[in-house]
Amino acid sequence: MNIHEYQAKAVLKEFGVPVSRGVPVLKVEDAEAAAKELGGPLWVVKSQIHAGGRGKGKFKEAAAGEKGGVRLAKSIDEVKQFVKEMLHNTLVTIQTGPAGKQVNRLYIEDGSDIEKEFYLSALVDRVTSRVSFVVSTEGGMDIEAVAHSTPEKIISFSVDPATGVMPHHGRTVAKALGLTGDLAKQAGVLVGQLYKAFVTADMSMLEINPLVVTKQGELKCLDAKVSFDSNALYRQPKMLALRDETEEDAKEIEASKYDLSYVALDGDIGCMVNGAGLAMATMDIIKLYGHEPANFLDVGGGATKERVTAAFKIITADPNVKGILVNIFGGIMRCDVIAEGVIAAVKEVGLKVPLVVRLEGTNVDLGKKIIAESGLNVISADDLDDAAQKIVKAVKEV
Ligand code: ADP
Ligand code: MG
Questions:
Q1: What's 288's domain CATH number?
Q2: pLDDT in tens, 70-115
Q3: Can you tell me which residues bind substrate (predicted)?
Q4: Is residue 85 part of a domain?
């Protein structure tokens, strides 16, 4: 689960992490009071969306002006003008895709006098089973690009959970960033605070880009991106309350209500499969035959007719879906239950695109019979290869 920058900063602040003062703004009318509360003389108006690259992003609407999603304001009037221009308009960044994201929240914060920008992040390293830090002098930039073109500028180290952050970790960061004296000391304290926040709040990722040194000689986190481990949210009610469902894929939210493992993708063939491995294989074979899956969907081993119906509805509600492939191996799951679920769903929501069904396993004959006798326009397939070829062919003919 991701949260907004202003929420992440509020969480980090509780651990003592140095962040700027700021006020979230949801309505144009609140801009003036927020700007006055902060006092200036420099304000930054920041779009709050679950995507990075906001500073270099562009708004779709002409009314939002030429500037990007992060704007420096030098007067209260300018703050008010930016809020009016940005709020409720659509920001397109390298991370949002061409459709962009509507900006429904802004964060107005104290402007900093930046001397230098760095990069610092923490994440769970699956290889070492530890929290790893990644630091670089190349702050405020796309870190993937830095990793690609100048990998030597990225330093990383992991923290032993038995000891936590040690003084040498702080020295490593200070050295990597070329910090000495008091700034080196601040870096050591900061790493300890970030590690504590990361572990206590069950984060899976924490990215500060940029971490800056101000002209006043302070280390400060100017941006903050935080993701939490979804499997630990049950014990993080405070963090769970920060969830903003409007930032998430509506289809994924609907799927989570039915315990379906669903991930929306960019292709045009909707897939309904049981078992994550079979779902991956199904996506692979669709690609092998030259098409792209519209989603990953694992209905699970013990799916009921209701869950199958819900899954089918989610797939058909996706306007990108030009064809559907149902691929079920009936082990714990019975093929007749799947068949009934599919038919119930088709009767309820209609079927505007070709549907290929491949059933195998327990009660397969009964399942096939139910589909054959349903009178619905369903293409039956015998194996995975046959199914993939049939759906790709059917989609091409549409
Ligand atoms: P994003 O990464 O989405 O573009 P950032 O929060 O990193 O958004 O902001 C982009 C840039 O704007 C930063 O690299 C920094 O140069 C500048 N910036 C952000 N916040 C402030 C601030 N409080 N004061 C001064 N400059 C800022
Ligand atoms: Mg940033």
A1: 3.40.50.261
A2: 999 999 999 999 999 999 999 999 999 888 999 999 999 999 999 9
A3: 274, 331-333
A4: yes
